Amino acid sequence: MTDQSPLIAYIGTTPNIGTTAAAFATAYRLGEESGKPVGFLCLNLKSAKLHRYLGVDTPGCTLDGLRPELRAGSLTPQKLIRACHTVRGLPGVHVLFGNMMRDQAEFFTPEEAEHLLDVAERTFSLTLLDVGAYWDNAATICGLRRAGSRVLVTTGALSHFQEDGNRWIKQVSPLFGVQPEQYEMVVIQPPWKIGGYSMKEIGKETGIAPIGEMQLNETFFSLLDSGRYEDWLRGDEQGKKAMKETSQKLMGRYGLQRKTVMTVQPWYRKLLTHRGGVGL
């Protein structure tokens, strides 16, 4: 691992449209495909929800729990790993749950954010940043400025990709040194097909290149609400495809190789059976 591994930031044009779900699905696929240590930092300072999606009612440690180390500049890779939740079935995916102290969000400083990102770069092979949709906090601004890839999540609703997209990405983002063309787009596709614009139409309107889409189904909502999002990603036919295209593009961009999976040939399986399970 290099001293500075890639940071990938996810931001929504609009709050509560599936940005966290898309970001986590990407981290899940990256861990699944590469077998490398992948970090997921929830930098939502006012509306952290991932712990609920994963069925963790009371997280052992969250972003606000690291504030003393972040203020002192004393966070280490070992401390960050210990503060993270390990994803079931994917021990290489480490999740730092977001801020639970909503009233303290405005006191999270750029220095704290920068220190956290510095340590994450030294800890993981690649780190996903899930930042809030509003540009009124240090976590969003620092995360997007530092990221090597920036993924803008939106939907087919005109008010999301046009109105909110224009306000935040075309007007506010450049004020902090991040131009609209520095984003790539993921479109959340709901199970119902009434109205809405296609990814091609949204790309033409926004001028932002697509990097993938996330197709949802009815099962997604029921499992998400019951804290079983991992079950949808692992076991549902639609869930198994979620953010796969995007994660493969990111793996290619950053040179992450697919992990080697050993397959047992049928002839060898028969031989083992004949030998009573004893290898050659």
Report on this structure.
The chain has 280 residues and is of the alpha/beta class. It has one domain (7-274): 3-Layer(aba) Sandwich (Rossmann fold). The protein has helices spanning 19-34, 50-53, 67-72, 77-83, 110-123, 138-146, 158-172, 199-206, 218-225, 229-235, 244-254, 266-274, and strands at residues 7-12, 38-43, 85-87, 90-96, 126-131, 149-155, 183-189, 209-215. An eight-stranded mixed beta sheet has the order 3-4-2-5-1-6-7-8, with helices on both faces. Strand 3 and strand 4 (90-96) form a beta hairpin. Helix 1 (19-34) packs across helix 11 (244-254), helix 4 (77-83) packs across helix 5 (110-123) and helix 5 packs across helix 6 (138-146). The chain is globular, with a radius of gyration of 20 Å. 41% of the residues are buried. The mean pLDDT is 93.
Strand order of the largest sheet: 3-4-2-5-1-6-7-8
Based on the structure given, which CATH architecture is correct?
A: 3-Layer(aba) Sandwich
CATH class: Alpha Beta
Tell me, rounded to a whole number, the average pLDDT.
93
- The low-pLDDT segments are none
Reported for the largest beta sheet, the result is: 8 strands, mixed
> Structural class given helices, strands, pairing?
alpha/beta
Shape: globular
Radius of gyration using CA atoms only:
20 Å
- Per CATH, the superfamily is P-loop containing nucleotide triphosphate hydrolases
Give the CATH topology.
Rossmann fold
The proportion of residues in beta strands is 15-25%
By DSSP (H or I, 4+ residues per run), the number of helices equals: 12
Domains, number: 1
Helix percentage range: 40-55%
Helix and strand sequence:
EHEHHHEEHEHEHEHEHHHH
How many E strands?
Answer: 8
Terminal Cα span: 36 Å
